Amino acid sequence: MKSKEQFKSEFMLIIVTIIWGGTFPVIKAGLADISPLLMVVSRFFIAFLFFLPFIIKKRKSIPKGLIKAGIILGFSTFVGYGMLTIGLTMTTVAKSSLISYGYALMTPPLQFLLLRKKVNPVNLIGLVIAFAGMMIFTSPSASGWNMGDSITVLVAVGYAFTVVLLDKYMRIYDVGVLTGFQFLFTALFSAVLIPFFEVPVFVPTFNLLIALFYLAIPGTVGALYLMNRFQKGTTPVRAVVIYALEPVIAIILGYMFLAEYIGLQELIGGVIILLGVLFSEIWGLFVSPKVKVNSI
Hints:
- This protein has 296 residues and is mostly helical.
- The chain is built from 12 helices and no strands.
């Protein structure tokens, strides 16, 4: 049966998913007043400042391997969040959330290739059900394929590597310090590319400041720290199934705040996604692989 620690970890990942779902419409709205890469720099540098005290406090005991891990995680996070933000300038919340969730299909083979971990067939079945629901929910073919959609494919790649690498690094290094370096290098990678890919735009409107606050604090500091802290309490594939709720939440909020239409097809798709998540989770109450949970 699922342990209390695993149940707690997966519950916290659901909270992470709810927060993430809110970032899609917030990014889309905020891009009216700021250029994409500058938004990523602002978001992650502000987030880094919250973890700077952890780094300063433990600066004498930081191993070189942790900094290297922070660089690697920072790059994969940059690919994910940087391309997500750029892509949202050219595509909708619905299509972005579906294509981004494509990382779910990449996670199991990466988990095996990088960590040599076997995948629970039950979780894979739940993942397939959830992804089928995602296809119905967001209907990406309805409006055709554009450049923003192509860029967003890279989001899936970045997310997949981040999920699997976190499973490795968070069992080795201090969560607070590693998360801080992850955010710092994400901001640095984004800043380096600004001169090559965009003319910086920053109009400090009230809406933009609220957007940056949400993206930096709950959307980055809160969500990614919780992900880094609790994902090691479950398996990467089970985490990915839980994250299937993110696009559902994103598109509901997109409808509420950006007037993106939700029809019967999206409703059916959302129900199928929930069935996929519930299948994996409920089955896991009775048949679940043993999960090693490390304390920090």
